[in-house]
Amino acid sequence: MRVLFASLASVGHTYPLIPLAIAARDAGYEVHFAAGEDVHGALAANGLRPFRPADSFYEIYAEDLEPELARLKPDLVVHEWGLPGAAVAAARAGIPGIWHGFGRLIPEGIGFDLPTNNTEAPGRPHVDICPPSLQDEHFLATEERLVLRPVPFSAPAAAATGAIQRGSQPLIYLTLGTAFGTPELLTTAIEGLATLDARVVVAAGRVRPEQLGDLPDNVTVQTWSPQAELLPYVDVVVHHGGSGTTLGALGVGAPQLFLPQGADQFANSDAVSAAGAGLRLLPDEVSPDAVAEQVRKLLPRDGHNYHRDAARTIADEIARMPSPDEVARHLPAYAERG
């Protein structure tokens, strides 16, 4: 069987698809991956045959993919929620397709078309990597879902995170992702976290470390950290609320402080906070003192572990979700629907 995966050319949209693509490859299927060149390194390193359709760099439109479908003749197209053009191209070609989610259902009004409203490729099932307790209730009730455990993926480390290990002090991980970080917000968060009796690891992303000024001894800043390898050692995650970091932290049972900035981040922070597994600060609430105060609430203290216990309950739920290998075995049945 030949399977074509397709995603926007960004870490947040491509990486959630990689575990299932690898499992499909390991199951003996011929796997190809359509995406812009910015994510080809990680895809090629895992034998996923990446290519750039037409002149696409980030988005892929139906017209970009149609010639590639005629060339490859895949039996199934797995297209992520941010790429309706791939769904439309597959539907026009009469090729079965599956939407692949990257977290909670995309909320309205953030610049993406809802996959559930796509009239050119209606009724397609969804690979759903969000634990059901946090997923949109209407989506759960109305859509066909193929449940998949979210598996954090990190590309090979360009730089080491340092000695990742448990220590006498708590370990706090701070990241604002690849699209939303600013020097001002990172500096504010670092100033607050530095006052705590904890080690702080910062993934600066698009912010250059030198823009953050002098750093306290308990703060380590790197441009990038292999998040999947770091998270199991972390006590609290402070972040923007992107789906990848949200699910990664939940998978290891780490409570979270959300500093949402846009996109789906407010919806993610609302859902996790309502479940008791995190707290949030809205943009006009963020200050060094507020960040420090909220993280103190998330750290275990005096035997009280309410937020950690809630996060670990969701981690147990995630652990019970089907693995990529299990889900890959079901893909031929979806290919036969054509």
Description:
It is built from 14 helices and 13 strands. It is of the alpha/beta class and 338 residues long. It folds into two domains: 2-150 and 321-335, 3-Layer(aba) Sandwich (Rossmann fold); 171-319, Glycogen Phosphorylase B (Rossmann fold, 3-Layer(aba) Sandwich). A seven-stranded parallel β-sheet has the order 3-2-1-4-5-6-7, sandwiched between helices. Strand 8 (171-175), helix 7 (183-193) and strand 9 (199-203) form a beta-alpha-beta unit. Helix 4 crosses helix 5 (84-92) and helix 7 crosses helix 11. The protein starts with a strand and ends with a helix. Residues 158-163 have low confidence and may be disordered.
Write the layout of secondary structure elements.
Elements: E1 2-6, H1 11-14, H2 18-26, E2 30-34, H3 40-45, E3 50-51, H4 62-72, E4 76-80, H5 84-92, E5 97-100, E6 126-128, H6 137-142, E7 145-147, E8 171-175, H7 183-193, E9 199-203, E10 219-222, H8 227-230, E11 236-239, H9 243-251, E12 256-258, H10 265-274, E13 278-280, H11 288-298, H12 306-319, H13 324-328, H14 331-335
Parallel strand pairs: 1-2, 1-4, 2-3, 4-5, 5-6, 6-7, 8-9, 8-11, 9-10, 11-12, 12-13
Helix pairs in contact: 4-5, 7-11
